Request: fold
Amino acid sequence: MKTDLLLVIGIVLTIFSIPSIISAFSDGRAPRVAAVVLIAAGCLVVYAIQLHPGEFRLEDIPHAFIRVIAGIIR
Reply:
């Protein structure tokens, strides 16, 4: 469950940081905070994969989301 949670948080942070980066570039600003969040998200994903190598394949990502949401609801 710990690796699932790290992976899901990393993916969600990545998804949220991309619009922020695009917005900063379109306004002519440097995307400092969004870049830091993107780096942190990448570190979370890499750490989750390193904890259990071979556990996460591309088709396992939706199952990881479901396990995390089920753990939160319970």
About this structure: Residues 2-73 form one domain. The chain has one domain: 2-73. The mean pLDDT is 93. Residues 23 and 69 are 29 Å apart (CA to CA).
